[in-house]
Amino acid sequence: IVILIMSKVHCLTSVQKIPLSLEKTWEFFSDAKNLLTITPPFLNLKVTNKVFGEEVYAGQIISYKVKPLAGIAVSWTTEITQVVKEKMFVDQQIKGPYKLWHHQHHFKSIEGGTEMTDIVHYRMPFAPFGDITHQIVKRKLVDIFTYRFDKINEVFGEWPGQKLNLKID
Questions:
Q1: Would you say 114 and 17 are in contact if contact means Cβ atoms under 8 Å apart?
Q2: Is the whole-model pTM more than 0.70?
Q3: Radius of gyration for the chain, computed over Cα atoms and rounded to the nearest angstrom
């Protein structure tokens, strides 16, 4: 008898309004080089391959070294699997620390700027033990997306009255 134990698929959702046109917002977020700008220094993110193109495209591969926990370096490779210009793109982990990592980036023009929504579905590795460490990982993801929210506000200006809108289940 084989018993398969699967960890839960968690969902992180973040919504941020940016006082910048959709075109300019897309230009920034669809350029992989700008990932370094919005990633917290404590992750020590390094892109390890030559990234082709100034804008995301389906099939684009990006490899990184990152130190998410306790300064331990982890290799992470993602593929851009879907792109709809100025609307959305998806990066999906091919190799890395998660059993599943599927990150949707959505962009919508609104009065005064752009609304950006991130939806990340992820599953911890090593079920059921990965679920035990989820609280640590969840705190780290909150730290990462909080940094990102603050950095985007610093770079593009703050949307009046906006607070961090982040949910993880």
A1: yes
A2: yes
A3: 16
Three-point CA angle 145, 74, 90, nearest 5°: 50
Using DSSP's 3-state secondary structure scheme, residue 19 falls into coil
Q: How many CA atoms lie within 13 A of 169 on its CB side?
A: 3
CB atoms within 10 A of CB 124: 22
Cα separation, 10 vs 122, in Å, equals 5
Which residues are paired to 103 by β-bridges? 91, 120
- What does the alpha-carbon distance between residue 155 and residue 110 come to, in Å, rounded to a whole number? 19
Q: How far is the C-alpha of 42 from the C-alpha of 26, rounded, in Å?
A: 26
Q: How many CB atoms lie within 10 A of CB 145?
A: 22
CB 60 within 8 A of CB 53: yes
Q: Looking at this protein, which amino acid is placed at residue 21?
A: S
Residues ≥6 apart with Cβ < 8 Å to 66: 43, 44, 45, 46, 73, 74, 76
- pLDDT per residue as tens digits for the range 33-81: 999 999 999 999 999 999 888 899 999 999 999 987 777 899 999 999 9
- Which residue(s) pair with 74 in the sheet? 66
* Cα–Cα distance measured from residue 66 to residue 73, given in angstroms and rounded to the nearest whole number: 5
The residue type found at 157 is G
